[in-house]
Amino acid sequence: MERCAQMIAEIRKYRFLLEQLVSRDFKTKYKRSVLGVFWSLLYPLLTMLIMNFIFSNVFKFAVPNYPLYIFSGLLVWNYFNDAINQSMMSIIHSGQIIRKIYIPKMIFPLSKSVSGAINFGISALVLLLIALATGVHPAWSWLLLPYVMICSMLFALGFALVISSCMVFLRDLQYLWGIVGMIWMYATPIIYPMYIIPEKYAPIIFVMKLNPIYHYVGYVRQIIIEGRAPTLAWHGVCLLSALAMLAFGRWVFRKLEDRFILYL
């Protein structure tokens, strides 16, 4: 608890720097782009349309409101994947600053996660608009969307702290993550329903359900598509997995950060 309070105090102390880093990251991402921030809307929409055509017409997935089903999965996955990809090199790219002045090094992967959260919020609004456009009636359960978004952000930040600190010592991680990330995505029921997996693969299904992203995606689908609140156990799994990943990420980062300067 004390360490958590210390981390929050550091963030508040360097809040201005964090705001500047987030602003820089967001502007740099869309620099010289004709559509700019609208890519935050177009990318998931175009992906949804392509996947909807392929999997609903070619593979014949009989999932009610399949476009919304896909988009709700992409909402969570795209934020997580984007946060990790952006955070991965954050310490390495900030090497000159770290060598010259003291700044809490954690602020660099944090700024990447926060800038990604802006797109996350925009995509969440698009999700609600798609829900309305596809005939889904608003429900009070929609008010729970910020809860699962916060859980997703905490989990992504914890993972980002691990991978950004390890990247300083092992640069091959950027290539390894490309493979792991692809496997992780297809192991999460984002574009396919879980029921298509035969029962004989029950052990594989059990392992897949240990994936926190599976629970975040399922949570979003329950509150938006089904219009009902998940069980208390589902709430607990989302929160505990996020806090556990954040605590682990912070522990790994603290263990390694004093040696960063030797490898930058």
The shape, in one word, is: globular
Q: Mean of the pLDDT scores?
A: 84
* Largest β-sheet summary: none
Question: In percent, how helical is the residue content?
Answer: over 70%
What share of residues are in beta strands? under 5%
Say how many strands there are. Answer: 0
Rg on CA atoms, Å = 19 Å
Order of helices and strands: HHHHHHHHHHHH
N→C terminal distance: 31 Å
Low-pLDDT sequence parts: none
> What structural class results from the helix and strand content?
mainly alpha
Note the total helix count. Answer: 12
Written account of the structure:
- α8 runs parallel beside α12.
- The chain contains twelve helices and no strands.
- The model has no long low-confidence stretch (mean pLDDT 84).
- The longest helix has 27 residues.
- It has 264 residues and is mainly alpha-helical.
Descriptive terms for the model:
globular; 264 residues; 12 helices
Short summary of the structure?
This protein is mainly α and 264 residues long. The protein is built from 12 helices and no strands. It has helices at 2-13, 15-29, 39-58, 66-87, 90-93, 95-100, 107-133, 145-167, 173-186, 202-208, 212-224, 232-256.
Q: Mind sketching the topology for me?
A:
Layout: H1 2-13, H2 15-29, H3 39-58, H4 66-87, H5 90-93, H6 95-100, H7 107-133, H8 145-167, H9 173-186, H10 202-208, H11 212-224, H12 232-256
